[in-house]
Write a structure and sequence with these properties.
The chain is mostly helical. Helix content is 84%, strand content 0%. It contains 3 helices and no strands.
């Protein structure tokens, strides 16, 4: 196997992994967990914990 063929095979493997990751990230099964993670910053519990940490550091 020469260098050009090896580079082609590696490029195809990387392309396949990219397509798999895109399908995985946009699948409907993952939507609820991604939405929960995206909205976790807006939860009040998280803000209270940050305020407690800032108060303790002062």
């Amino acid at each position: 196997m020469d260098y050009g063929t090896l580079r082609g095979v590696i490029a195809l493997i990387i392309l396949a992994l990219f397509i798999i990751i895109v399908f995985w990230s946009y699948s409907k099964k993952r939507k609820s967990s991604f939405d929960k993670a995206a909205n976790s910053i807006f939860e009040d519990d998280h803000k209270e914990e940050i305020n407690k940490q800032e108060t303790n550091n002062v």
